[in-house]
């Protein structure tokens, strides 16, 4: 039986590492919005990032449904940063007769900030092509991230 799993967690929490590892183990297709937006916009997407995420998220959800109907599992590498996003994702799949699992990648604040600093150093050194997380993006993220309550997610990965 195929599964649809969506990662949830802060920027730089380890969602992509987890999603790729899980996709290898299941096996499943890894669907990453970051990979596609990086290809289209590069590492300094700025305000366009929100616009593209808004368009790509339903596309990836539809692809997961399509794969599931063919018996193929998928791991959607997202953030689902707000309660409304998590509820909306569940509603999307439920309305199409599919179930999804939400796996929350939880990291302490100190680890989160260390990972952001490492990511930025790697970008500056040319070792990574991820998004650069400046102080403004970090503050923006902190202002709207809503940690999931236990009933909102299917699995907490610490």
What does it look like?
- The chain has 158 residues and is an alpha/beta fold.
- The protein contains 6 helices and 5 strands.
- The chain has helices at 15-25, 33-41, 48-69, 83-95, 109-124, 135-144; strands at 4-8, 29-32, 74-77, 101-105, 155-157.
- The model has no long low-confidence stretch (mean pLDDT 91).
CA-atom Rg in angstroms? 15 Å
Tally of extended strands?
5
The tally of structural domains comes to 1
**Order of helix and strand elements from N to C terminus:** EHEHHEHEHHE
Put simply, the count of helices is 6
Instruction: Assess the beta-strand content as a share of residues.
Output: 5-15%
Low-confidence stretches: none
Structural class: alpha/beta
CATH topology: Rossmann fold
Shape, principal axes of CA atoms: globular
Q: Major sheet: size, sense and barrel closure?
A: 5 strands, parallel
Q: In the CATH hierarchy, what is the superfamily?
A: P-loop containing nucleotide triphosphate hydrolases
CATH architecture: 3-Layer(aba) Sandwich
């Amino acid at each position: 039986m195929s599964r649809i799993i969506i990662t949830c967690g802060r920027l730089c929490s380890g969602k992509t590492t987890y999603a790729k590892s899980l996709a290898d183990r299941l096996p499943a297709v890894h669907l990453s919005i970051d990979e596609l937006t990086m290809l289209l916009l590069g590492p300094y997407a700025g305000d366009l990032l929100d616009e593209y995420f808004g368009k790509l998220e339903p596309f990836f959800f539809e692809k997961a449904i399509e794969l599931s109907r063919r018996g193929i599992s998928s791991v959607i590498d997202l953030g689902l940063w707000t309660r409304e996003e998590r509820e909306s994702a569940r509603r999307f799949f439920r309305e199409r007769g599919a179930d999804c699992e939400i796996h929350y990648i939880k990291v302490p604040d100190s680890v989160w900030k260390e990972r952001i600093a490492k990511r930025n150093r790697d970008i500056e050194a040319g070792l990574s092509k991820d998004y650069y997380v400046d102080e403004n993006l970090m503050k923006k993220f902190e202002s709207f991230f809503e940690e999931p309550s236990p009933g909102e997610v299917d699995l907490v990965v610490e």
